[in-house]
Amino acid sequence: MKTKLLIAFMLLALSAQAAPKIKTQHFVVKDSIRFFEKDEPQGVGYKFTKTVTADWPVTVNGKKSKALNDFLIEEVFYASHNRENFPNDINDAKTLKNCVKSWVHDILRSNTMVKDFDVKEYKSGIKDINHEENPMSCWYETLDFNYSHSVGNLMFFVENGDSYYGGAHNMFASNFLAFDAALDKPIRLGDIVTNQSKVLRLLPSYDKRDADNKWWKNIDVPDIQNFYVKNGKLVFVFPPYAVGPFCDGIIEVAIPLKTLKAKRLLTTYGKRLK
Question: At what angle do helices 66-77 and 93-110 cross, to 10 degrees?
Answer without folding.
Answer: 10
